[in-house]
Every structure is written in structure tokens, then in C-alpha cells.
Amino acid sequence: MRNLFTLLLSLFCFYASSQEANTSRHKTTGKAESSIVMDSTMQPVQVTSFAGIRKNGGIELVWQASGETGLSIYEVQHSSNGTSFRPIGSLVAHGDGKEYRYPDPFPDDDQNFYRLKMVDRDGKHSYSAIVRVKMQAVSGITIYPNPARNTVNVQWTGPELNLVSQQGKSVRTIKINHKGVVSSSITIGELPRGVYYFQAGSERKKLMKE
Which domains does the chain have, with CATH numbers? Predict the structure, then answer.
């Protein structure tokens, strides 16, 4: 009888130990699963259009962007030489891809350079391409720089500008709701090297893409 009791006690202890081990394994697995963190790295902001419009003796900056999630503000910066920039104002980011407008009522008499500093909520920042606006009289289409590799600044009399290949195929169209003088920074880095033409109305200007 004593041997039977000892055997039953041993089986009970073994069963209890097995259950405790299984429970422990389940708890460990649960902790491992709950510690998984999804990668939520924010995509960079992309300024899809950025233009400067001469208006009432000043310059109005107009731009749109995508990927604004996490973006805090746009800081508008001005330069007289295209190298040394200073902030002249800022706009809070909408986060929904709407159009932004910022007026500069007192630009320089000759040429003005503008760029956007995009600041995230965590303090990180990046810059847009630079737009150059000349306050002097402009006839036809002006291009800077030319030849160009990644971006080119174009100034023309709006509202529409077309970029066509040497074969006459349209590769880019820019429309601005303004009939006066417009300046815009245009990204061309993805285009093959070669000769292109900017067209606005009856005006036409050759661009060399490096």
C-alpha cells in the first residue's frame, strides 16, 4: 500500500511540474510577441511644385507637397546671392497636400532666391530646390542654369509652360493660375541627357540636359 501511495504521489508531482513548465513557455512566447514594434519610419516630404510669382511689386511663393505626415512647419528662406539664406517667415504644415502661398512684399530690386526648410515634429529638417525670381523686366523665357543636371529655374510669362523633347514629345507641363511673370524650380534629374525645349505661348528656349 505504501509503495502504491508513493507511486501515485510521484505521478502527481510529475504532472504538476509539466503543467507549470507549459504555462511558463506560453507566458514567454506571449511576451516576445508583444514586444514586436512595427517600423513607422516617416517618408521624406517631397515638394511637387514650387514657384515664385511677381505680383503688385512683390513676390508670392506658391507650392505643393506630398508625404507631409509628421511635418511641422515650412520655413521660408530668402537669399540675394543664392548661397546665404535667412528665414523670412513660416507656415504650419496642413498635412493634406493643399496649396501653400506666402507673400514677400519687399523683395530685392534685382534677383531673389527662395527655398523651403521643411521641419519635422522631431526637429529633423530638409530643404527644397531653390527658386530664383528676377524683378527686372523679363522678355520670353529665361533658364538658369543651362546646361542643367538635376533642377532648373525657369522664368516665363504664365499661365502655362511646356517642356518638350527634341522629337517634339511633351515630357512636362506646368500650369500656374496667374498670367504674369512666373518663376519655378523644375526637377529634371530623371530625364535622359539631351536637348529639350521650354515653350510658353509663342516663346521657345533650348535646354541642355546633362
Answer: 43-136 (2.60.40.10), 139-210 (2.60.40.1930)
